[in-house]
Amino acid sequence: PLLTLSSLARAACVGLMMALAAPAFAQVNDGRSVGDASTGQAIELTARPALVLAGSAEWEDGFAKLNKAFADLRTALDRANLKPSGRPLAVFVDTDDQGFKFQAMIPLEAAPAATPSFPASIKLGETPIGKTMKFEHRSAYDDIDSTYEAITAYLDEKGIEAKPMFVEQYLNDVTSADDTSLQVDIYVFVK
C-alpha cells in the first residue's frame, strides 16, 4: 500500500535526534536549493555500509525505543572500533494504527574487512537506496505532524506516488521531543 497521511503522521510520534559529522547517505540531487516541508527535492540515495538494528514500537514508546536503538548501535560501534560516517537515521518499514517497524542505522566510514562480533540484534547492512523526495522539518518533534501533512499535500498536488517506506535523518542532538532546535530531513521513497 501507499503511504497515507495517516501512516506518515503516525511516524511523527517517534524519533531520536542524534548527530554525527557527515551525511548519512551518498546522494545525487537535482541541483535545486534544499526544500522545506512544502517543497520536495528529488534525491537519488545510494547505498552506504551501516550498522543496523531492527525493531518495533508502539506509538507511545517510539521515542524511547529509537533512543535505545541508537545508543545500542553506538556501543557496538565503539566496541568493534568502527568509525561512523554520517548521521543516525530511522528507516520506517511498516506503520499501522498501533505502531511501527523500523531499522535504526548508523552509516560506517567503510565496511569492516572482517565481520566483528555484535549482539544478535545488530547486523552489518546498508543504508536504503532509491529515488526519493527529500523534505525538511525544522522545529520540535512534537510538531512534525504538520510537516507530514505538508508532505502528503505536496505529493498529492504533484501526483507523486510514495512507496511504503520513508527515512528520518537526524541532523542534530536534542534530548526531548519539544526541543524546537530539532533538524530532521525526511526522505520519502517514490515510484
Walk me through this protein's architecture.
It is a single chain. The protein is 21% helix and 34% strand. A hairpin with a 3-residue loop joins strand 4 and strand 5 (99-107). It has helices spanning 5-11, 62-80, 144-158; strands at residues 26-29, 41-46, 49-58, 89-95, 99-107, 122-126, 130-137, 162-170, 184-190. By secondary structure, it is an alpha+beta fold. The longest helix is centred in the middle third of the chain and has 19 residues, at 62-80. The chain has a 9-stranded antiparallel β-sheet with strand order 1-2-7-9-8-4-5-3-6. The chain contains 3 helices and 9 strands. The N and C termini lie close together (12 Å).
Essential attributes:
9-stranded antiparallel beta sheet; disordered N terminus; 191 residues; alpha+beta; single chain
TL;DR?
The protein has 191 residues and is an alpha+beta fold. It is built from three helices and nine strands.
Secondary structure layout plus pairing:
Blueprint: H1 5-11, E1 26-29, E2 41-46, E3 49-58, H2 62-80, E4 89-95, E5 99-107, E6 122-126, E7 130-137, H3 144-158, E8 162-170, E9 184-190
Antiparallel strand pairs: 1-2, 2-7, 3-5, 3-6, 4-5, 4-8, 7-9, 8-9
Helix pairs in contact: 1-3
How many helices? 3
Q: What's the multimeric state?
A: single chain
Question: What is the average of the pLDDT values?
Answer: 81
Global structural class: alpha+beta
The value of Rg in angstroms is 16 Å
Largest sheet: 9 strands, antiparallel
| Fraction of residues in H or I helices | 10-25%
Low-confidence segments, given as residue ranges, are 1-35
Order of helices and strands: HEEEHEEEEHEE
Principal-axes shape call: globular
Could you tell me the number of beta strands? 9
Strand order of the largest sheet: 1-2-7-9-8-4-5-3-6
Tell me what portion of residues adopts beta-strand conformation. Answer: 25-35%
Task: Give the distance, in angstroms, between the N- and C-terminal Cα atoms.
Answer: 12 Å
